[in-house]
Structure formats: C-alpha cells, structure tokens
Amino acid sequence: MNGRRTIGLALLMSAALLTGACGSEPAGQRAEIVQDGRVLRTVDLSSVRSEERMTVSWEGHTNTILIAPGEIRMLSADCPDQICVRSGKLIEGGLPIVCLPHRLVIQWAD
Amino acid sequence: MRRLWLLLCALCFVLAGCGGEAAEKHSRDFFAMDTYMTMIAYGPRAEEAMQAAEARIRTLEDELSVTREGSDIWRVNHRTDDAVPLGRDAAEAVGFALAAAKETGGALDPTIYPVVEAWGFTKDHQQVPEETALRAALARTGWTRVRLDDGSLTLEPGMEIDLGAVGKGYAGREAGQVLRDRGVTSAILSLGGNIEAVGSRPDGTPWRVGLRAPDAEGYAGMLSVQDAAVVTSGSYERYFTDESGRRWHHIIDPATGYPAENGLVSVTIVGQDGLVCDALSTALFVMGKEKAAAFWRAHGGFDMILIEEGRHITVTEGLAGRFSILPDYTEEEAEVLRR
Asked: Which DSSP letter does residue B250 get?
C-alpha cells in the first residue's frame, strides 16, 4: 500500500465517521427574531459582547427583547397574557418564545 | 498531489451529502389554531409532506375553531335549530370529546365553554366571575345533555360546545399521519407545545423532548420518545392575578366552575395518539394525582408525568429510564407509579 492510498483511506474513513455523526443537531447559537413570518433580525449569541434592548412594535403595541452575551429573552411586553415574558430565556434546543398577540417569535435559526 | 485534491473533493461531496437526501433537514413555522406551530422533518419528501400537513391543520382550524365564523363549532354555537349537522372531522372530534367526557367521569367536558367565557379566558380581559354569573354559566353546561346521532349534534338551548381541550391534539395526530403517509420517517412537530414525534431522529436515536419547568425558567426534565405524542397541561401556561394577589389559572374543573386546585401544576401524557393525550392531559389535571393514578391503572395505554407544587415528580413505570429529571430543577428522584 503506498502512502497516498493510505491518506485516501484515512480521509474516506474520517468521512464515514463524520457522516455518521451528522444526524445530530449542532449546538446552534444563532437566534432569530421573527414577526408574522418575517425575520426581523438574526443574532449570533456567542458573539454578543454587551447587553442590548431591542424594541419591536405591532399595531401600536410593544415588545422589548433583551439580547445579552449568550442569552436572549422577552424582557417586557404590553400583551395581556405575558406568556412570552414568563417563558424566560431561549433555551438551547428548546421551544421558541412566542408572543401570540403580537405575532412575535424568538427561536433558534436553522 | 492532484490525486490528493481529488480525494479532498470527494470528501467534500461526502460531507455535503451528509446534509443531503437522507438526512436533509427541513423546517416550517406558522401561526394556526391560536398558537405557534413548528415542524422539523428530514428526507427528500419532507418539504412537500410538511406543506400538506400544514394544509390539513388549516382545514381543521376552519372546521373546529370556536371563534372562526362558519366553522362547524361556530355553527353549533350560533344555531337556530337544536340539531346541527357536522362535517366528518368535527363529528369525529366531538364524538371523541363526548366519549372522553364519559370515560373520565366529566373531568373533561366539551360543554364547559360558557364557564370559560365567564372567567374571560376566551378574551383579553380575565376576571373572577360573580357567584351568580358562575352558577348561571354552569347551568348551561353538562356533556350528558348533548346528543350526537349520525353526525348531527343536538344541544339544549343556551348550551355551547368547544374543542379547546382536544382540537390541537386532533390536529397533531392528523399532521403526523399526513407526514407518515407521505413517507416521512423522521419528524418532530410542536403545535404550541403539543409534541408529535414521527419515527426517530435521522440517526435512529429517539427524539429528546424537554419538559418545561412549571415554576421556573428552563426545563424540569428530558424525555426520550419515538413515534409518540407528548402533551402537557399546566396551570402555569395561562393565568391571571386578581386584585387581592390570588392567582387563577385556566384549567377549569367542570364540577365546580373554578380552576382545578389539587396540588398538581402540570400533567404530561405520553402516548400513541395525540388526540387521546390532549384530552387526558386536561382531564387528569382536573382529577388530581390520586384519581389520575387510579385512572391510569384502570385504563393504561399511556404514560404520564405529574409535577406537584414543591416539585415532586411522579412518572408511570413505562417512562422510568426514558425520563430524566434535570438536577437543576430538583435533586429529588421521581416517584414511579406501578400497576
């Protein structure tokens, strides 16, 4: 067996190993803020260095989103049920944070 | 050296193929049935299948919504005759809800809508109803006073019906079936938190579903499932606080007209049929732990996770080994219910 063929085999074997591993989800840090189906913004939480408050309006109502290092959450909302605020921060692999009355969603980007 | 480049190129193709046909991930998100739905499906048929599943959900919303003008349920609640003919889906869903009402001794009651309206849970303004108003609303309920014959629904005057406790479950079951019929073997759907797992993950391992902590941020535990529905009813989902600071949640005990208060804060049902899981999560929440355990022993066919105030967690034996409590939530081990 010559050297090049050995390299080739090694490459193919590592490819097979990688293929086997690709069914699992990558640990994404990219969150997206979506309103009524439109992506307003995508944030890579791993590259956020300081806290930021983002305000989003919907038919005269307001949501405030906290974007912080490694973290995103609905900080406040003038919706009646407050379910989005109570959802806390977006959890890795977790369900989206949804403000139904304002059609606003914070979720992991694909 | 050229051969090495060729090999590298081949490797790139293999890696690209990794996200390719067999395991290509597709997703679809949309608002429907007064909630947010997300679908993730893998494989070459995923996109078309999810489109069909969404269409099925939207059809069901048109038929089963209590607020959508012209839906079967809306027509029942705005009837001019006592008997109203239902479409196939509405007849099946109502028939199931009535059977579930009987089976659960009325812990689930599809005629509870007047009481839910009295509490304001159907609109933005919630309040504790006056005792007389609540009694009047309760007098307009009672699943035993409803008849469903040959797809025709008969209600006494003043009574109303709604499928809030089973509609999303029915939609989850149907959407899962659409995906399976179209050859999808790996998908996970969330209908506002109602989970429908189709097959397993693309690598053959089970789907992992997080169970929301009822009284904190994050999760209480993780559950492994394949080809199953997971539906939770919790007092933390929708509630309001009155002037005196007392908290009232949205899961009404049909026997009293008041939110069920029995120490449970969430009930999760795991089973084959999303419709059954949806109905049982509400009914067993209303029953409380002891009656829920007795119901499970008598009927079987599903598993459940009960969380009580104080974070005590109980699971049925079928879930031991498939459910793990997150140590951040509680260090107490789960109590296991056995037959």
From this structure: S
Tokens of A63: 């949501």
Residues whose CB falls within 8 Å of the CB of residue A85, separated by 6 or more in sequence, listed in order: A74, A75, A76, A77
Domain endpoint, select from B154, B187, B214: B154
Tell me if A24 and B34 make a contact (CB, 8 A cut-off).
no
Q: What is the mean pLDDT of residues B89-115?
A: 98
pLDDT in tens, B168-215: 999 999 999 999 999 999 999 999 989 999 999 999 999 999 999 998
Please tell me if residue B144 touches chain A, with a CB cutoff of 8 Å. no
User: Which domains, ranges and CATH numbers included, belong to chain A?
Assistant: 26-108 (2.60.320.10)
Q: Is B247 on the interface with A (CB under 8 A)?
A: no
List the CATH number of the domain containing B232: 3.10.520.10
If one counts every other C-beta atom within 10 angstroms of the C-beta of residue B226, the result is 14
Look up the pTM and report it.
0.86
What residues contact B99, with CB distance under 8 A and at least 6 apart? none
Average pLDDT, integer, range B296-322: 97
